[in-house]
């Protein structure tokens, strides 16, 4: 079958790989000059199913109120840029802040994320793909003892889903990652998830795209999709400046641009951009960069060692599709990184970046069929797109191929918002 994938981020690239593996004739249409140049470019690097708690949960509202109006808040609302889609998203988000909804959304996200981590391991073993990966787990550290107690309680729920989440004392945290020694006195404790991983999502995406091309996947770079043409209950082609591209099946994996492409077809995808920042710090000549991936709960920052670089990433801004690199936000994440790992690297040569997470109100991606019989969704992966890319791609390849997917798709599709 001829299948077209729109978007060559980590999600679209993984999907194209699994479609090609299933024997399809695959074309990827991408507006940029290569793979992984938008949100998948410089993210936090964590493959973190064991930290798959949804944004929407009962404890988030008091925190959001506390952060309102603070320029250094981990979650920042810039009201001037709000549109009706964002207001509608917020109402749905509020509806997901109950403990019951959070439990359902955690299970759904975990289902995809755990499957995806297994797919990633298999893919790595089969292809030898290298992307500065570290398989030393993730250590989530807490300064606030109440937050730590809350995380320990959440661990009990997560372990029921088969996850290994181990509570650690500050001293044990330093044993796991000696680079934390300077802040050991500030820590209340940590949660170690030894089965989680980290790695460079961009390196992974470009490496996998090259393997997919060698396998016959056709890439149409510098080709913005201007719209999807519809014929009855089917998509009949992709409109581009250089003509219409047709196929038997179409997969929408365009990250934050997916709603704009779906809307003219009558599909409303409840997905908005949540802007985040990262810095990438060269570590050569410095001994204080961690090897274990770290999450700093207080500042909502993550740290991943990528070969001779340290990636520090975090913060969320609800500010539309704006990609301005705000100096105050860069300074803030640099200060957090420097405070946690003073001798990690040359902070003066840190490379700043910003990207837009495609977030749904329940933190569960949008996967699977649509009312249009030959259009599939592989989008809305929010804070965990790198974590969930391989599993999502394989699920879509199974659906397109008419094979039963390896995990239940219940609650993962657009129909849950009907
Ligand atoms: C600061 C930050 C830290 C993060 N940390 C982590 C982490 O540690 N772990 C994790 O799992 N996730 C993390 N994420 C989330 C993760 O990066 C995203 O979920 C993921 O990159 C989304 O991938 P995607 O392929 O859906 O989107 P993208 O990477 O944005 O890809 C979409 C592609 O579609 C193309 N496209 C869009 N519109 C069109 C069009 N009309 N025509 C043609 N092409 C089009 C774009 O050019 C782009 O290449 C982080 C995100 C941020 C911002």
What topology emerges from the helices and strands here?
Blueprint (H helix, E strand, L loop, with lengths): L1 E5 L3 H12 L3 E5 L16 E2 L12 H8 L7 E3 L6 H12 L3 H29 L10 E5 L2 H16 L5 E3 L1 H7 L12 E5 L3 E2 L2 H14 L3 E3 L4 E7 L2 E7 L2 E3 L3 E4 L5 H5 L9 E11 L10 E4 L4 E6 L2 E10 L8 H14 L10 E9 L6 E4 L5 E5 L5 H17 L17
Parallel strand pairs: 1-2, 1-13, 2-9, 4-17, 5-15, 13-20
Antiparallel strand pairs: 3-8, 5-7, 6-7, 10-11, 11-12, 14-17, 14-18, 15-16, 16-17, 19-20
Helix pairs in contact: 1-7, 1-10, 4-10
Bound molecules: flavin-adenine dinucleotide.
The site of flavin-adenine dinucleotide has 43 residues, from helix 1, strand 14, strand 18 and helix 10.
What does this structure look like?
32% of the residues lie in helices and 25% in strands. With 418 residues, the chain is an alpha/beta fold. It has a domain of 267 residues: FAD/NAD(P)-binding domain (3-Layer(bba) Sandwich), CATH 3.50.50. The strands form four sheets. Strands 4, 5, 6, 7, 14, 15, 16, 17 and 18 form a nine-stranded mixed beta sheet that branches. Helix 1 links the parallel strand 1 and strand 2. Helix 1 runs parallel beside helix 7, helix 1 runs parallel beside helix 10 and helix 4 packs across helix 10. It binds flavin-adenine dinucleotide. The site of flavin-adenine dinucleotide has 43 residues, from helix 1, strand 14, strand 18 and helix 10.
């Amino acid at each position: 079958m001829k299948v077209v994938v729109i978007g060559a981020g980590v999600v679209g690239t993984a999907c194209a790989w699994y479609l090609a593996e299933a024997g399809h004739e695959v074309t990827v249409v991408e507006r940029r000059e290569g793979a992984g140049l938008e949100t998948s470019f410089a993210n936090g690097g964590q493959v973190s199913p064991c930290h798959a708690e949804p944004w929407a949960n009962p404890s988030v509202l008091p925190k959001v109120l506390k952060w309102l109006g603070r320029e250094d808040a981990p979650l920042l609302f810039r009201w001037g840029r709000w549109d009706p889609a964002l207001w509608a998203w917020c109402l749905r988000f509020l509806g997901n802040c109950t403990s019951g909804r959070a439990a359902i959304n955690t299970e759904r996200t975990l289902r995809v994320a755990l499957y995806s981590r297994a797919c990633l391991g298999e893919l790595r073993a089969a292809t030898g793909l290298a992307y500065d990966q570290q398989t030393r787990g993730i250590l989530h550290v807490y300064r606030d003892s109440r937050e730590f107690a809350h995380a320990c309680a959440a661990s009990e729920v997560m372990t029921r889903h088969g996850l290994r989440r181990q509570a650690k004392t500050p001293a044990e945290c330093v044993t796991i990652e000696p680079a934390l020694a300077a802040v050991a006195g500030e820590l209340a404790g940590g949660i170690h998830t030894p089965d989680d991983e980290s790695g460079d999502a961009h390196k992974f995406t470009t490496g996998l795209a090259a393997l997919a091309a060698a396998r016959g996947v056709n890439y149409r770079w510098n080709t913005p999709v201007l719209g999807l043409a519809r014929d009855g209950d089917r998509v009949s082609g992709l409109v581009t400046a250089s003509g219409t591209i047709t196929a038997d099946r179409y997969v929408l994996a365009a990250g934050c641009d997916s709603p704009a492409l779906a809307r003219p077809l009558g599909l409303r995808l409840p997905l908005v951009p949540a802007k985040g920042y990262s810095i990438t710090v060269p570590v050569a000549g410095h001994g204080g960069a961690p090897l274990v991936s770290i999450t700093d709960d207080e500042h909502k920052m993550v740290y991943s060692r990528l070969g001779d670089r340290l990636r520090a990433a975090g913060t969320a801004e609800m500010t539309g599709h704006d990609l301005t690199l705000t100096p105050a936000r860069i300074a803030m994440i640099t200060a957090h990184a420097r405070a946690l790992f003073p001798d990690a690297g040359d902070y003066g040569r840190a490379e700043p970046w910003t990207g837009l997470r495609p977030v749904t109100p329940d933190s569960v991606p949008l996967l699977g069929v649509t009312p249009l019989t030959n259009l599939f969704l592989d989008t809305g992966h929010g804070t965990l797109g790198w974590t969930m890319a391989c599993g999502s791609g394989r699920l879509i390849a199974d659906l397109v191929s008419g094979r039963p997917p390896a995990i239940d798709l219940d609650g993962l599709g657009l129909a849950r918002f009907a």
